[in-house]
Structures are given as structure tokens and as C-alpha cells.
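User: Structure please.
Assistant: Input sequence and predicted structure:
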Amino acid sequence: MSEASWGDAAKTPTIDWRMSASLENVERGDGDMAEVTSLAGAVRAWLELDPEHRTAALLTPERAVQIDGVATASFTGEGIAVLSERLPARHAQQG
């Protein structure tokens, strides 16, 4: 019998930045319409918002994202900021 390993990689598996995600509660033009894009694109769009809109935004990925052993199905404010810190450099410029 082998033992399970519960290192940091098990707590935060690789994030699929290409999965679909919606960014909601963000004013766009004359209305408040959800933007559906990749998770990387949604995080980048959130980074471009002013502080008031960042606070109101809701990011919902196609699948739950696991960070530090906790699976989360949607993110707001500080949760999106945590995601943005994990955004790989290659996703910082492209989608």
C-alpha cells in the first residue's frame, strides 16, 4: 500500500486559465452585461477596472478552482485578486 502525498501541489492544482468564465456586475456601455471569456481574460478585465467596480464584480469560472485546498465556484473582490496573483506571465498579455 502506498501513502498519499498532500503537498502544496495537491492543495493548489494547475489552474486551467483557458476555461470559460463570466465577469458580471460590471457596467459596460449603457448596461450591466456579463462578459464571457477565458478565465485569464476575465481576470485581466477585472484588473483594468476602477476600485468601485472591482468590489462589485463577480467572476464565475466554468468549473470550480481549487486554491490552498479550497474549491471555489465564484469569486469576488479579494478572491479575484488572489487569482490575479497566480495568473502566469504568458496569460498576462494574451488570452
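The beta strands are 20-24, 35-38, 58-61, 65-67, 70-72, 75-76.
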